[in-house]
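Collaborator request, handled under Task 6.
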Amino acid sequence: MHALFITLLIIDAVALIGVVLLQSGKSAGLSGAISGGAEQLFGKQKARGMDLILHRITVVLSVLFFLFAIAVIMVE
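Structure tokens returned to the collaborator:
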């Protein structure tokens, strides 16, 4: 059972890394973080299309990652 949870944790970690790398950047580097950071934070701009799907997948994979990590500790 321990090996199963470790395998699922590794698969989830690789999938999470892949999904995060597929997401588009929110700013144009350091200058975008300084000048446009507040605009993006407080703006009415919502994620749409593929960005929304990738965001939701990231949330689900993150929750699964923590659940698998806790399961690995509990089964050990």
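The cover message to the collaborator said: "Residues 2-75 form one domain. The radius of gyration is 17 Å. Please let us know whether this matches your experimental observations."
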